[in-house]
Amino acid sequence: MRRNISTAIDEIACDTRAGAAEILRRAARVFSLLEQSVTNQDDHRQLVLETCIALIHSQPSMAPLSNLANAVAQAVSGETMNRAEEAARRFIENAERAVRDASLHAARLMKENSGVLTHSRSSTVMAAFRAALDEGRKFHVIATESRPLLEGRTLARELLNSGIAVTLIADMAAALVIDEVDFVLVGADRITPHHIVNKIGTRMIALAAAERNVPVYAIADSTKFIDFPADREVARDVSEIWEDAPASVEIVNRYFEPVPTGLFTSIITEDGALGIEEARRRAAAASLDPRLTELLEAR
After folding, report:
1. Residue 217 predicted with pLDDT over 50
2. Residue 120 has pLDDT above 90, yes or no
3. Which ranges in the chain are annotated with CATH 3.40.50.10470?
4. Residue 47 exposure: Cα atoms within 13 Å on the Cβ side
5. Whose C-alpha in 104, 217, 268, 293 is 20 to 30 A from the C-alpha of 33?
6. What residues are labeled active site?
7. pLDDT at 37
8. How far apart, in whole angstroms, are the C-alpha atoms of residue 278 and residue 119?
């Protein structure tokens, strides 16, 4: 059974395309396997903590996974052996409601004939676009290709199929079109007191927007806030940058980057738009269980 748990976590670690919602559901399955593996309370608690640490390391930039692990660790901290799977499912249910509410708040940013620039493919951003469309507003989205995985193409197809006008551009063309949009709207994988972690290229877009006084918004429900630095992202497959490259060429392929929170106008959450100082305070208050922190810092 422990081998099955390790295999499931390895599959999460290798997934380069799934968003937080799907990863969280798969993590709940990991805890389901865990529940079947031991009956002794002490062994159970130790295995839960080990599983939580492994999940955090599997996708270090994804704050919802860290916060899920944190919720589960706290659920098994008492004298009785609480079910880790139930704690995980409760966390996911609350997260799904929060994402839905955040997307509805973000939909209000889209006015009639708004122009919006987005980078990468965020399911919450897409939900906001659909919500604005359902409310009867027409607007135009400029989407970046989002290299190296080109998830912007997937987003463009989804927008087109939903009846939303879309233009696809190269990532490096974002500064060129910044004057054509009313605002920038992106998702977020992690919000700390000082940075918003998102797809690489977000910082360049935010800097270009700041130069032209174009607002930049991030959608992030409460599961994205955390006061713990992510491990450095593991190097990704270099063939995504250059297949069959000469051996003497050093290639670095990373998916995420920290962007200073000060480059954002506000953060759209399930509670509405948060000012940057409030977002920083919320992130600072989202600390991990001391046992998890100790184990993470020891590695």
Report:
1. yes
2. yes
3. 100-285
4. 24
5. 293
6. 189
7. 60
8. 24
The contacts of residue 5 (CB under 8 Å, 6+ apart) are 30, 33, 34, 37, 51
What pLDDT is stored for residue 78 in this prediction? 59
- DSSP lists the bridge partners of residue 167 as 142
pLDDT higher than 90, residue 141? yes
158 burial level (CB within 10 Å; 0-12, 13-18, 19+): middle
For 83, 179, 226, the CA distances from 63, given in Å and listed in that order, are 22, 32, 7
> At 36, phi and psi to the nearest 5?
-85, -5
pLDDT band at residue 27, thresholds of 50, 70 and 90?
confident
Give the mean model confidence (pLDDT) for residues 38-61: 80
What's the token pair of residue 185?
């709207």
Please identify which residue in the block is written with the tokens 């999460």.
12
- Domain 2-99+288-298 sits in CATH 1.20.120.420: yes
Cα R_g (the chain), whole angstroms = 20
| Residues contacting 188, CB < 8 A, separation 6+ | 122, 196, 197, 198, 218, 219, 220, 224, 267
Tokens 């929170």 identify what position? 261
Residue 80 in this model has a pLDDT that exceeds 50: no
**pTM of the full predicted structure?**
0.90
Grouping H, G, I as helix, E, B as strand and the rest as coil, residue 165 is strand
Q: How far apart are CA 135 and CA 108, in angstroms?
A: 9
Per-residue pLDDT band at 299 (split at 50, 70, 90): low
Cite the residue boundaries of each domain of the chain with CATH code 1.20.120.420: 2-99+288-298
Angstrom distances, CA of residue 72 to CA of 28, 51, 91, 132, 257: 10, 10, 9, 35, 27
The CATH T-level fold of domain 100-285 is Rossmann fold (3.40.50)
Q: Taking all residues of the chain, what is their mean pLDDT, rounded to a whole number?
A: 90
